[in-house]
Amino acid sequence: MITVETIRAMKKQRSKIVCLTAYDYPTARILDESGIDIVLVGDSAANVFAGEKTTLPITMEEMLYHTKVVSHAVHNALVIADMPFLSFQVSESEAIYNAGRFLKVGASGVKLEGTVIASTVKKLVDIGIPVMGHIGLVPQSIHKFGGYKLQGSTRPEASKLLREARLLAYLGCFSIVLEKIPATLARRITGSVNIPTIGIGAGVHCDGQILVLQDMLGLFEDFTPKFVKKYANLGPQIRRAVAAYRQDVKNGKYPDKKHSF
């Protein structure tokens, strides 16, 4: 069974960390059986599961539900839950309570975006709740950025992200997601911290990689980020299967004797 300490050790061993998102039991079980190291119950469920334009609308109760069903399916991978918007920013006590709720339904740790909550991160770690950091393009701050833009492309921005990564490592995070930053900056950050970096649109030099499952399987078709490699294109395949089923029902070919009692 993979633990936080397993993930930390993988950086020292130079063993790449493989992460994907999941929001339901069947796909989480497949990911676990396929040897994925970290299953992230991402607030990206707001986009690819619920059809929202941003991650902001998803609630604690919705994230707890997704985390619970994913945790039922996973027996080996490390399950990390995304803390949604306003679940950790309002107060330290509320952040601790909400993070604890994720552990109660099966997660082994939580992910927090940004570093403005430094004292909260430290408190969570101190009371035994593993924290994954997340810097660069942090989707919960999408209105501040004015879109899903590359971060860290200027010298001041790069220096700021480097400082943030070092701070998160100092505070006790067990890993950091680096999203949509230049590969050269990700390489610098990865070499500057003693905890694993998990890249998404951050190039090859990170200690691990994560993608949204629906993106890499071709199930989410509204848009495809540049950094996504599609390992399947299931959207058209599902359409063909549904069309064939519809045709069989219309023509009286299904159900037949084989599928009847």
Account of the 3D structure:
The protein is an alpha/beta fold. It folds into two domains: 4-230, TIM Barrel, CATH 3.20.20.60; 234-261. The chain is 42% helix and 14% strand. It has eleven helices and eight strands. It has helices at residues 4-12, 25-33, 45-48, 60-73, 92-104, 118-126, 142-145, 155-171, 183-192, 213-216, 234-250, and strands at residues 17-21, 38-41, 78-82, 109-111, 131-136, 175-179, 197-200, 208-211. It has an eight-stranded parallel β-barrel with strand order 1-2-3-4-5-6-7-8, surrounded by seven helices. Helix 2 packs across helix 4 (60-73). The longest helix is centred in the middle third of the chain and has 17 residues, at 155-171. The chain is globular. The protein starts with a helix and ends in an 11-residue tail after the last helix. The mean pLDDT is 97.
Task: Show the helix and strand layout.
Blueprint: H1 4-12, E1 17-21, H2 25-33, E2 38-41, H3 45-48, H4 60-73, E3 78-82, H5 92-104, E4 109-111, H6 118-126, E5 131-136, H7 142-145, H8 155-171, E6 175-179, H9 183-192, E7 197-200, E8 208-211, H10 213-216, H11 234-250
Parallel strand pairs: 1-2, 1-8, 2-3, 3-4, 4-5, 5-6, 6-7, 7-8
